[in-house]
Amino acid sequence: MANRPVQKETNRRPHFLQFNNLACETAGGKVIFATDEWFAPARNLLKRDPPEFIATAFTEYGKWMDGWETRRKRIPGHDWCIIQLGVPGIMHGFDVDTSFFTGNYAPYTSIQAACLDQMPSFTLEGDRTGMAASPSQFEAVEQLNSDSWEELVPMTKLNPGYSESCHNYLNVTYPHRVTHIRLNIYPDGGIARLKVYGIGKKDWSTVSSQDLVDLVALVNGGVCVGYSDAHFGHPCNMIGIGRADSMGDGWETARRLDRPKVLKVDEKGILQVPGFEWAILRLGHPGIISKIEVDTNHFKGNFPDSCQIQACCLTPDEENNLIRNQGCSDKTPKWRILLPPQKLKAHHRHLFSGESVVQCGPVTHVRLVIAPDGGVSRLRLWGRPVNFT
């Protein structure tokens, strides 16, 4: 099969953007405290969908904004909020997105983090537009001592929310598990979205080696480490929680331009095409995979014709080398067939087990190959976690 080179971006984006957004509302992230939410509530920070701007939209408190915006502060201090991650894990970077906040964006930010043994019981309910934290809420949050949490990002200047400057990418090197973050803004203002990019960290000591676990799931530490194309949707969506809400919550590629003008199939009904697309995922824990799900939910006129899955064991150095070589199988002879080519259907949950899944021993990485192109909403790889050196 011919392989298409990955398109190079003119403006290089941080590598951490291909990791999972551990704070997203769809992953279970939530705001449990905010000092002030006068113009727009802090829960908007965690929305999955991109921010939007409606010029004519106003509330009784002022201009409607799709983000978190505090009032112009007239008392001592600065504003801040606490976010409980939907998936605790290791942080690699942040995107503080100020989209559409141009004359009202927060000028500076800092970010702190903690790993709390017990999750706080308080949370913010309902629409809190026009509200501020009550004395009792301040008293409750003081028990977390959040002002002394580890500083991941020192006070940093933010850029206004114009299209060319709205994404404030902040790289982080912090090797410890995090459950909560504190987002500080100085002194007040607005932020549209906060994305917390990282890798989930599960306590595998609580999992029996006989239990079947989805080894690639977001909540179990699975992560996408490379892909050929993500024109309409990133492959990291495939390991999200639950079934996809829409096509936008899956991996979808552009249509390949090397498709034959007239399509033909083999004796199994699989299209014979020269090209394919691929995504490489690292398992949350090495394991032996025995059951596979490939879900094309919502992909009705744009599902892949077929797929196959390859697997291998890689060290961190070998993983880095693999990504530098753009995942080409001819440069990585370690790949072994885990799932032979399978014809796919539209809007369908495909389950493979038994003889359909090739027993290839313990693996650390998988490579999902789709031909010629299209969309997959979820990938599940159930297996037994194993320890090996």
C-alpha Rg (nearest Å): 23 Å
The name CATH uses for the topology of the largest domain is Jelly Rolls
Roughly what percent helix? under 10%
Q: What profile does the largest beta sheet have?
A: 9 strands, mixed
H/E element sequence: EEEEEEEEEEHEEEEEEEEEEHEEEEE
Going by CATH, what is the homologous superfamily of the largest domain?
A: Galactose-binding domain-like
Count of individual helical segments: 2
What is the overall silhouette?
Answer: globular
Provide the CATH architecture of the largest domain: Sandwich
In CATH's first tier, which class of the largest domain applies? Mainly Beta
Mean pLDDT over all positions = 93
**Structural classification:** mainly beta
Distance between the termini: 33 Å
Total number of domains? 2
Could you give the count of β-strands?
25
Low-confidence stretches: 1-10
Beta-strand fraction estimate: 35-45%
Family: Belongs to the allantoicase family.
Domain Allantoicase: 28-198, 221-385
Protein name: Allantoate amidinohydrolase
InterPro entries: Allantoicase, Allantoicase_dom, Galactose-bd-like_sf
